Amino acid sequence: MQILFAQTKLINENIEKNKYKLKFKSSINYSIIKNKNRNVFIVKDFYDESKSGEAKLPSHDIFISLPIVSNPKLQYKITKQKTINAIPEFNPSVKLTKKEEIIYEEPKRIKNTQTDFIIVKGYLWIGENYCLHLEIHPAIFIPSKNSIELTNEFQIELLFDQELQILSKQEKPNRNDPLICNFQYVSTPSSLTDKYNIQSDDSWIDYSKIYLKLGVFHDGIYRLHMSDLESKGISVQSINPKTFRLLLKGEEVPIWVDGEDDLSFDESDHIEFAGVRNMGGHHREISNFSKPYNEYLGRYTDTTVYWLTWDGIDGQRVEISFGDDVIANDTLDYYSNITHYEQNKTFDFSCASLVRREMPYWIENKTWHEGNLNVGIRNSSFLVTDVYSNKSFKMFVKLQDYASNISTNAHLITLGLNSSGIWSDSTYIDKYEQVVLSLERNSNLLNPGNNAFNINSIPTEATLNACIFDWYEIEYPRYLKPFNDSLNFAFPFIDSEVERVVKLQDINTDYYSLWKYGNSYKKYNVSKINGEVVFADTIKNNDKFTFIDELKISTPKIYYAKQFENLRGAQHKADYIAITHSKFKSKTDEYSQFISQSYGLDTEVILIDNIYDEFSYGFFNPEAIQDFLKATHTYWQDPKPQNVVLIGGATYDYYGNRFYASEKIKERVINYVPSFGASVSDNWFVSWDTTGAYIPQMNLGRIPVRTNEEFDWYFEKHRNYLTQEYDDWNKHYLFFSGGKLTNQSELDLLRETNQFLIDTYTLPAPIGGKTDHFYKTNNPTTNFGPYSQEYIQKSIDNGGLFISYIGHSGTQTWDNSITHPSQLKNDQDRYPIVTDFGCSTCRFAEPDVVSFSQLFTLDSEGQSLAYVGNSSLGFISTSITMPKLFYK
Fold this sequence. Notes:
This protein is mainly beta and 888 residues long. The strands form 15 sheets. Strands 1, 2, 6, 12 and 13 form a 5-stranded antiparallel β-sheet that branches. It has a 5-stranded antiparallel β-sheet with strand order 17-16-20-14-41, with no helix packed on it. The protein contains 11 helices and 54 strands.
């Protein structure tokens, strides 16, 4: 067996009462070289770009299947170890240039190196096995001695709180997962239904009833009439309107049903409710490290989904107030008007680690923004009307460091209003830091109409000095006067709870609706007197109110009426799940039948909207896909599904920011079936552990079609592939190696990696393949090596079952001049699989460019049946290790 860097193997195991003892053997491929009269411990081709400055010593993760579902105590003993008088190499630092090229540099400082031999990462399920995840460090650097302790053998003892039962040979489950190191004493298959943490529950759904899905994307009052329900095929004649119920995230919210007392929902009747926009909720707060950036709008959508249902218990009705609920002496005739200014044009952010930056997770600085704030003054305009005098008003701005060459006090910001020349106290921003800055002034300083919020970035010692500008916000006191006969208002400036008279002025209509909503709901039935609407109530500083002329009340977006399918139901059984959008439903049904007939699999097609509805209360949310797939392994029949395909394109640009920001982009990318995060990761949907193992629990792939025509072409290729004979063509393989012409060692390393695949896996039996390997050279300068153009073209025309590329790449290019799949099109009408472990060629979710993976599989010139590559930047470590693991 080829050992890439390190290997830990189980050599013995036994159970003694409540003790489970395991003995392991470790080995590392290394060499010792002399450098400046010092011995250096070399693990060839090993890098860990996430640990810049730490010793280049490999670790190994092992997974021990436990005999019972329990968290035992762990003891270990090293039984064979030797000391090597040598120092290790250290992991380089990794940077991204302005040209988006990855460069490796010597680390600026050496960090503390791991000294623990075993680290307990936690517990997780791998299939039906409850496992202990351990990280083993067989080589540990001892700086004080300039030596390395190399462990060859060790023992682990797991102490349980009960005696362990040894299963007979007949009782032992027949499982053989290559990730798990032991199988003699594995646990029996589990019937637990809480193995995986499913975020949502379905207790709010009555699977026997009909629900109407509604959406709103502005705070305000909404109405539904009889015709609205009938337009979605709902027969209202049999509905008792007192049973109308409205649900938000599984909780009932009170509504008003006009005309329900006659127990009939007629043309003159309506349902009225106060709806809210889906907001981030904490945008003025700074997110903690590794926590998602606090956005103004919901990360995935600003549309709030409500569900209307009926024919059950009577629904909740809003409290009606006649405006005299309390006796109050003080009057509120102004409110805090908050105007938010934000233009999201660019997706970029600051992050100390390039590896961490490329992970899919929504971390502290990862966000869309308007652009950069450079040194100088930015004047941001805002408009005010009907300003209430002599009160406090506030201005806010959210910034983060973008470019700086010093770590502390990198940027210096001060704020001002109009041309007063009066600036706030200055605030420093450190490298990688985000801030929300505010300026408070008296409202008398505001000009009627247009004003300027001035943000001044003052020069510092940083020669690189740019901040990311996210948004600015104005909060000023304004008379309670409607805009175009409607007004949303609140009083965040009051004490937590007070009794007040509230007075709205300049009311131009006699027919209006006025609600309190949010934390509590109330509908006010008060009359206009002399152009004013006045009511008294107990007011909290987090209460919200909305007023509107009845003629301007909106209808919510009405999606569809449905009976939920119960995707958690035990009636489901499948080997292969296809998740798709309704646009591709018919073609996916056909494709699913093809998979079933061709591969002998039970298949099931699931619409993405049904996943949102049952696992995210109807909200658009990519994370619901993970919850659904967890549910299939929790509630569906055995054997659990092992394969899932996502059919439809995706993008992390959930709001279409790039489309609206650039006239060059002619078509907005649609999230037919979304991916997770940015850089996007489909594998996140099937990686359910919490220990950092990132082990997919299902086989997952995607056909990122945006049109049915693309789907037809891919489907045709797959059908043809299965009908073509297995002949000499299946033994042909093409290898392309790239690299920087100015870096001979890199050219050699990448070429040698592909050559390793050829010598180890392709040429020997049982494959006995035929290969062509084209590689870059710098003397002479070539992209394909010492071959004639005729020979190269003939090889490409013949094609190969696999095409392996290792080298630098971009979203739509390889560094050896390949920029379109037509350049690798064979004339045999055959369908290869392409692998590329460089950068970005599988960025299938970009809002402004079509990736190589899409072109090779879906373009009319693309013959590939599959494309395996990175949806993020790639690194040397992955480019030289992943091909060896994949082709093995």
